[in-house]
Specification:
By secondary structure, this protein is of the alpha/beta class. It folds into two domains: 247 residues, Crotonobetainyl-coa:carnitine coa-transferase, domain 1 (Rossmann fold); 88 residues, formyl-coa transferase, domain 3 (2-Layer Sandwich). Helix content is 37%, strand content 14%. It has a seven-stranded mixed β-sheet, with helices on both faces. A three-stranded antiparallel β-sheet has the order 7-8-9, with helices on one face. The radius of gyration is 25 Å and the shape is elongated.
């Protein structure tokens, strides 16, 4: 039902950014086939697949990628697919017999999406790492936190923002190109590159002299009194994003303060004193009291909600930002389309649930499927 209906993608199962990219593409209508291991995956595996939200909406076949017949199964799947997603370290797919050259011999128009932290080339390309390492080298981690230390921004920036989103965009872009040229290509999606791209505006502001290369002194890093987080009397927090003068004036008015009694909004030297005064005022009331005061006012103020509270907020409920799939509350597909609407995603399935079905789809008969299962090249969900 989504805009990517008709697109067939094969995902070599893993953790983090590749599953998230595959989830996004599946949410938008692509038929994504996940290649799961024949043995338990260990770290990142789920005892109850319902909670593995990143695996939703896909069919699964279990394949032993170290078995020659298993590799042949994957290659046959790729013959009728538009794209492949893999997140191995550079060189691993080639050693398995699933590198771009091997795949191109079977399907010259296939797009080969590669997700790594450091990229396919470079001094660190073969090194281990995780989200926090990639965003550290891009400059992003240095820019987030208190004056004293950076903070860990979950794994949203490297894995999901700089990684999965750029992989998904790159693959869709390359598939569009392949439909006119008839030729596939490799998409080298590196988290360090994507994270650097996310920092484009900050690097521009730094080059211009508007952004200081330190934390908590800039407009968007908590340094400004009109853009940050304030603690309330009950231990809750308010987010404030009153950048424009009219919103800043409404914000101060809501606090019972007169904008004319403060220094100019963008007088950076006065920011610490202004911020301290505002913090003292906000500490006099609870979060809900401030929410009542700012309700209906264009002051760019919103409560900082917990995971439990967020799914219950009236705006979120009205928009159906979260959905319930097989008893698990999770984010709905995004973005939204006016005509080719995405549907409620299917719940995550046990690894190997569709092994026999998918093998039949690519031409294996009952006897061949039984032979593959008995050889250990593939496995079902049992």
């Amino acid at each position: 039902m989504g805009p990517l209906t008709g697109l067939r993608i094969v995902e070599l199962g893993g953790i983090g950014p590749v599953p998230f990219a595959a989830m996004l593409l599946s949410d938008l209508g692509a038929d994504v086939v996940r290649i799961d291991r024949t043995q338990p995956a260990g770290f990142g595996s789920w005892s109850d697949p319902r909670y593995d939200v990143l695996a939703r909406g896909r069919r699964s076949v279990r394949v032993d990628l170290k078995h020659p017949r298993g590799i042949e199964v994957v290659l046959r799947l790729l013959e009728t697919s538009d794209a492949l997603l893999e997140g191995f370290r550079p060189g691993v797919a080639e050693r398995l017999g699933l590198g771009p050259d091997a795949v191109a011999k079977r399907n010259r128009s296939l797009v080969y999406g590669r997700m790594t932290g450091w990229g396919q080339r470079g001094p660190l390309s073969a090194s281990a790492g995780h989200d926090i390492n990639y965003i550290a080298l891009s400059g992003a981690l240095h820019a987030i936190g208190t004056k004293e230390t950076p903070i860990v921004p979950l794994n949203l920036i490297g894995d999901f923002g700089g990684g999965a989103l750029y992989l998904a965009l790159g693959v869709v872009s390359a598939v569009l190109e392949a439909r006119s040229s008839g030729q596939g290509q490799v998409v080298d999606a590196a988290m360090i590159d994507g994270t650097a791209s996310l920092m484009a505006a900050i690097y521009g502001a730094f080059a211009f002299g508007f952004w200081a290369d330190e934390r908590a002194v800039n407009m968007l890093d908590g340094g400004a009194p009109f853009y940050g987080i304030y603690r309330t009397a009950d231990g809750g927090h308010l987010s404030v994003g009153a950048i424009e003068p009219q919103f800043y004036g409404a914000f101060l008015a809501g606090l019972g303060l007169d904008v004319n009694e403060f220094p100019p909004q963008f007088d950076r030297e006065q920011w610490p004193a202004t911020k301290s005064r505002i913090a003292d005022v906000i500490l006099t009331k609870t979060r809900e009291q401030w929410c009542d005061i700012f309700a209906g006012k264009d002051a760019c103020v919103a409560p900082v909600l917990s995971l439990v509270e967020a799914v219950r907020h009236p705006h979120v409920v009205e928009r159906q930002t979260f959905v319930h799939v097989d008893g698990v509350t999770q984010p709905a597909p995004a973005p939204r389309f006016s005509r080719t609407c995405s549907v409620l995603p299917a719940p995550p399935c046990p690894p190997g649930e569709h092994t026999a079905t998918l093998l039949k789809e690519i031409g294996y008969d009952e006897g061949e499927i039984a032979s593959l299962l008995s050889s250990g090249a593939v496995a079902d969900a049992n």
